[in-house]
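As promised in the previous annual report, we have extended the structural survey to additional targets. Below is the entry for Histidinol dehydrogenase.
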Amino acid sequence: MKILYTNQENFKSEFDKLVNRSDMDMANVMPVVSGIIADIRARGDEALNQQIAKFDRWEVNKNLAITQEQMKEAFDGLSDELKSALKVAYDRIFAYHEKQLEKTWLSFEENGSILGQKITPVDRAGLYIPGGKAAYPSSLLMNAVPAIVAGVKDITVCTPAIEGKVNELLLAALHVLGIKKAYKVGGASAIAAMAYGTKTIAKVDVITGPGNIFVATAKKLVFGDVNIDMIAGPSEIGVIADDSANVHHIAVDLLSQAEHDELASSFLVTPSAKFANDIKDEIYKILPTLSREKIARKSIDDKAAIIVAKDMDEAVELMNELAVEHLEIAVDNSLEFLPRIKHAGAIFLGHYTPEAVGDYLAGPNHTLPTGGSARFFSPLGVNNFIKRSSIISMNKDGLSELSKACMALADAEGLGAHKKSVEVRVK
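The corresponding structure token record, generated without further manual editing, is:
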């Protein structure tokens, strides 16, 4: 794990590598993904079944759908503790996203004109839930609840089933959410099926959910034919901390992202050289105790960095440049730093707010922008599952009041019929 000092000669070049960490080389997989999408568009279920046999290593034989009975059986088989945990997570995520729900509004002007905005949920949403190195029931909750809050009536879930098996907790979460349509298909194949439809899987209007580079590339290619949430890459965490932070706590937090994926990134920015070195030592003490040590170690060795800044002001500036997915501010006066944070997917304030609580049940969504895209993307939310329609209504007086300016602009653009459509109404 490297330690960088902002006053070292090559700091800028090394830091630029971290800023430009989003090295998902889509160009290499684009031909493969394009071929998968084209094949499913042309041959539907036949192509889909062949791709499942190839990539997930099982023969479909009409068992593509996950049944309601399978979902309920999995839920009934859970311990009371896990049942309760799922309910707590669902309730908290639902309550948070309810606050995001926009309402239709109308504004009435004195001249009789009416302006407004109509909020309508999409008809059909497709949720992609990863299932490669690990299964993520939490991702299902985070993607499904905003769609449910938005009022989407038709929700389709796709998740890979390696050798035909789906994680039991994921099945149980499907039951808790009341999902009616779920299918054992993953990767670019799932994205293509939801984007264009097959005999088995209906076409959707929006696709959300994280995935590997094949999934991300597929989402990019189908965007425009359907809407998507974002192009998500490997998970990442950034921590701003000073000597008031607990070394062991922060080391574990950095490892909590490293254990996701070999390509995950973990960053610490601190003004304390001693704290930086203590964190590095602590991380390598903890690593051998992790069940996913091999994955976490590669991530820490290849993708992690500790940056020693000259002060907290510089630490904030550097973290804003990194624009990380998860940002912990582990200092005594963490709330004072909030106004200065410009770019982060989710912000965790204080010494007792580990990123993990946001992953599961704090309430805010854990589907977040990665790779620096927090500069322009937002977390997944209710807004991803609604549409806004503008409302305009005018009577003759209202139109007359605006007609001169409207006709002048139409005339300037050389659009005679536009001008005339106003003129014939106010003559």
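The chain has three domains: 2-21+234-362, 26-228, 394-426. The first strand starts at residue 2 and ends at 5. These points will be discussed at the next consortium meeting with the crystallography subgroup.
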